[in-house]
Amino acid sequence: MKRFFDAATLTWLALLALTLAGVAASAHGAAPGARLAMALLIAALCALKAELLVRHYLHAAQAGPVFERLIRAFAALAPLALAFSAVREGWLG
Predict the structure, then answer these.
(1) Among candidates 92, 93, 86, which has minimal Cα distance to 41?
(2) Closest CA relative to residue 85, chosen from 31, 45, 29, 42
(3) How many CB atoms neighbour CB 82 within 10 A?
(4) Cα–Cα distance between 22 and 13 in angstroms, integer?
(5) 1, 37, 57, 75: most buried by Cβ count inside 10 Å?
């Protein structure tokens, strides 16, 4: 059976869907608890997007274990920074 989309296209569509979900989540939550929950959800979506990029575009596993660990650590920086910022805002706000 022939596939309608190749793996790169499916990954791109998944990234697009996750981006739209993040935009939708950012529009909700006026109360501090809801804002914290939505910010943490956006950080989780960002982490999922980073995983898709590392696995399907960068093919880090094929480059060797050291390079894979470096790429995964770098990809984890944005989601961790978003989560830290959300918790800090929730703590101070």
Answers:
(1) 86
(2) 42
(3) 19
(4) 14
(5) 75
- pLDDT at 78 exceeding the cut of 80: yes
Cα(52)–Cα(57) distance, integer angstroms: 8
> 40: which residues sit within 8 A by CB, 6+ positions away?
83, 86, 87
- What type of residue sits at position 28? H
pLDDT at 29 over 70: no
Q: Is the dihedral of CA 13, 16, 20, 25 positive or negative?
A: positive
Which of the four pLDDT bands, split at 50, 70 and 90, describes residue 26? confident
